Amino acid sequence: MAAVQFAKELLASGDVDLLYDPRKKLSLISKRMDNNGLMGLLRKADKTFEPMKKNGFRAVNDEGFMVDLIIPEREMWHNEIVQFAKDDLRTAEVPSLKWLCNAPVEEVIVIAANGMPIRLRVPDPRAFMVHKAWLS
To answer: Are 2 and 45 in contact (CB under 8 A)?
Structure first.
């Protein structure tokens, strides 16, 4: 995440939702967190990131840019807290997100600010569009 920049003017909603599938290990984060969790990773990119509230799912920086850590709604017997470090962001369950996790995946290569390529795996844009329409 610290190697990826999202230009705020290119984002319609002014925030980024990190969709985490708890069925799979998030290798990008697990290799770079240094036991500081997602907040530590966000602070490597921008030192002004703070959780909006203790044990919350959203972080915000001084410019109001928000990052949400979301997962699909789980069965009620899955009640363990999903977070990457003590006092880190906790996931928020979003109804009807499971089908988006199971949608076809697009893999694209983007170029970071330092010129290095980064592989992004994102849901099929058509599925994402349907999800956003459903949310609205």
So the answer is: yes
Residue 84: both structure tokens together: 């990457």
CA dist 136 and 131 (Å) reads 9
Average pLDDT over residues 57-78: 84
Residues 27-45: pLDDT tens digits?
A: 445 455 566 788 888 888 8
pTM: predicted TM-score of the whole model, two decimal places: 0.66
Tell me if 55 sits within 8 A of 49, measured CB to CB. no
Tokens of 6: 């999202």
Place of tokens 């939702």: 17
SS3 string, the chain, reads CCCCCCCHHHCCCCEEEEECCCCCCCHHHHHHCCCCHHHHHHHHHCCCCEECCCCCCEEECCCCCEEEEEEECCCCCCCCCCCCCCCCCCCEEECCCHHHHCCCEEEEEEECCCCCEEEEEEECHHHHHHHHHHHC
